[in-house]
Write a structure and sequence with these properties.
The structure is a single chain. The chain is mostly beta strands. The protein is built from 2 helices and 25 strands. The longest helix is centred in the first third of the chain and has 19 residues.
Length: 332
Amino acid sequence: MKNLYFFILILVISCKDVKKHEIEHIEPKFIKKVSTKAYIPNSYVFSKVPVCYDGFWYYLDKSNGSIVKLNKDFTYHSKTVVVGEGPHKIGKAYQMSLADNFLFVIGNFEIIIYDMIKNDIVNKYKHQLGLMQQVHYHNKEFLTSYIDETDRKLYIVSFKFDHKKLYDISKLVSVNYEKGTHVAEKSGWLISTADQKLVFIKDWMGEAYLYDDNFNLIKSFQLPYSGKKDFNKNFDDNGFTSYYFEAYSVAQYNDKIAIMRELDFEEKSDFNINEDINDKYVRSRIHIFDKNMILKQSLKVPNFSTQIYFKNDTLLTLNYEDEFIYLYDINY
């Protein structure tokens, strides 16, 4: 009888633990599809999913070397050329980041900073951080990550700027990578939790690192795989990991963190991992985590996507350099 009571007690505790970590599965409701051909003149693809500021949408148009400003309904408003010859232009624009009230257009060893409040360029800056990655505003500091050319390590750094230069560049933490990791894999996303803890997410490897206010590591872990099968994490001959583990894109969703995850092959039991991918069976999965980086919700979007952005409960998805953006409602 004691054994029976003990078994029941263990069962109850186990059930509570499972319930505690239950994942809510959400099917987003399609709103509409936006095309560059229909909305934006002389533009062919969205290089990056648009970001919203003060009722307008902004995105980097690599085909024209410009920042394009769109109205609320995605109709064309204006553009600012940022690539070319001139005091406020750079040789090539790789990406852009919206941080605090500034838009950062990132090139190689140079960057343009645009003041969104004044609607004007602050300046063009040259720096020694090489190809900076995403710029992020965290606890009243501007942060970015970059690979140091001397030791080939990835560092998270803070920096300040005025009208003349970037200054007070301070290395905060070095992110560890497995020995032999290809330099192209040393990249990732910076984002903040609801209680302002910093998170760095390796995009190629799908690993998350949670830091406290002093940038001490609280925990690190492999992001969960969303498919039916559990694949081993292996490096190929070129040092690249499988795309099943990748974190394609990261975005803030209300007080949570959303991560565009790996391909999700489902509804086809005879899928062969060694065969070519059939888009008919491909879905993209978005995982939503709380402030402790505990997985709470899982969204399946019907179109293959590599980038996401949230504006309140509206989800925007985009496949890299596609002419379409898809809008979904995830709270209906």
